[in-house]
Design brief:
Keywords: Transferase. GO terms for molecular function: acyltransferase activity, transferring groups other than amino-acyl groups. Pfam families: Acetyltransf_3 (PF13302). The protein is an alpha+beta fold. The chain has one domain: 3-Layer(aba) Sandwich (Aminopeptidase), CATH 3.40.630. The protein contains five helices and seven strands; from the N terminus they run E-H-H-H-E-E-E-H-E-H-E-E. A seven-stranded mixed beta sheet has the order 1-2-3-4-5-7-6, sandwiched between helices. A hairpin with a 2-residue loop joins strand 6 and strand 7. Helix 1 crosses helix 3. The two termini are 27 Å apart.
Length: 171
């Protein structure tokens, strides 16, 4: 199964909606996504990503065999952190455990480091999300620590981990 990242297309809306209309995925993401997640929600998101500042937002569809199976984005921070970016991603549940997350993260980080002045990419998965933590580790990210009681999701106070990959780690 060939994994690639590519720019979003409006035609991806149905597959995106199908992927995100899943509580198991949304439970591992930050709040703010509607549930149920509709095709109109997907079109709105895709439109926002396509018109976003190309020097600050790097948002890609994750594809496997030409089918959209997830999303990955890297978002530049500002002020003294302007050369740091936060990454978020998810894979359709039916494609979990197939190496697509690791593949997409490696491609995305390579793209960002090769095409921008960003020096550091970080991610903050919930600490219970062992699969996401493992994907980051397999992609070369280092765990920098535990962020205790760092989030409230589904009325639960949760710890998060912080991982980073430096451009210098990849050279």
């Amino acid at each position: 199964m060939e994994c690639k990242i590519r720019e979003w297309k409006m035609e991806d809306a149905a597959e995106l909606a199908s992927t995100l209309n899943n509580k198991n995925i949304q439970d591992n993401l930050r709040d703010g996504l509607p549930y149920p997640y509709t095709e109109d929600d997907a079109k709105f998101y895709i439109n926002e990503m396509l018109k976003a500042d190309k020097n600050s937002v790097f948002a890609f569809a994750i594809t496997a065999d030409h089918k959209v199976v997830g999303s990955i984005g890297v978002f530049r921070k500002d002020n003294i952190h302007s050369r740091t970016a936060e990454m978020g991603y998810y894979i359709a549940e039916s494609f979990w455990g197939k190496g697509l997350g690791t593949c997409a993260i490696k491609q995305t980080c390579q793209y960002v480091f090769n095409n921008t002045d960003i020096l550091r990419i970080f991610a903050e998965p919930f600490s219970y999300n062992i699969a996401s933590c493992r994907i980051l580790e397999k992609s070369g990210f280092k765990c920098e620590g535990l962020l205790r009681s760092n989030a409230v999701k589904n009325n639960q106070i949760l710890d998060m981990k912080i991982y980073s990959l430096l451009k210098s780690d990849t050279e």
